[in-house]
Amino acid sequence: MGYTKRTLQPGNEITRPVTGDEIGVYYTGWIYDESNYENDHKGKQFDTSIGRGVFKITIGEGKVIKGWDEGVMEMSLGEKAIFTISEDYAYGNHGFPGIIPPNSALVFEIQLLSVNDTRYGKGNGDGKDTGLEKDKDPQLVKAK
C-alpha cells in the first residue's frame, strides 16, 4: 500500500533530504480514523514533538517507519504536509505496544525544518521563536 501526502504549506522546492541526511522536523501523529474524513482522518493523537523541540533523525536508513523514510524525502525545506500511512508502512501487525494497535494506519502532520546544516525560518535550531507559521516564503539559513 504505502502513503499519501497532502501539502499544507509549500517548501522552497530546492532543498530536499536524501538517504543519510540528518533532518529536523516538527510532527504530530494520530491513529487513522476512517470516520473522521473532515479532519484528514485524524483519530486519537499518540505523539507530538510540539512543545518538546525539533525532532532530529537520519532519514532513509530504517530508523523511522517506512512511510517517514520514503515520504519525508519527497518534502522540501519548510514544507508542511499531512501523510496518511498504511499499516504496512507504519508498525505493521505488531503495532507499538501500549500506544499503537496492531495493523493501524497512521496520520502524521510533518514540517521539515532542517536538512543537515540548512534550516528553515529565523530560529536557532531549538524549535523556539522560529516564526514558522508567520513566514509565507521559506528562508534558507545556514546553521552556525
Description:
The chain has one helix spanning 66-71, and strands at residues 3-9, 22-32, 42-48, 55-58, 80-85, 106-115, 118-120, 140-142. It is mostly beta strands and 144 residues long. It contains one helix and eight strands, in the order ββββαββββ.
Question: Over the alpha carbons, how many angstroms does the gyration radius reach?
Answer: 15 Å
Spans of 5+ residues with little confidence (pLDDT < 50)? 124-144
What does the largest sheet look like? Answer: 8 strands, antiparallel
The number of distinct β-strands equals 8
The percentage helix is: under 10%
Strand content: 35-45%
Q: Pairing-aware structural class of the strands and helices? A: mainly beta
Question: Could you give the order of the helices and strands?
Answer: EEEEHEEEE
Number of helical stretches of at least 4 residues: 1
Shape label = globular
Mean pLDDT across all residues, rounded? 87
Distance between the first and last residues' Cα: 41 Å
